[in-house]
Amino acid sequence: MADAKLTVALLPTHVSPHPMANPGYGKRAAPGQLRRTHHDFTHLPPREAAIAAYIDRLPDGTDISVKTLAKALPASSRSR
Question: What is the number of structural domains in the chain?
Answer without folding.
Answer: 1
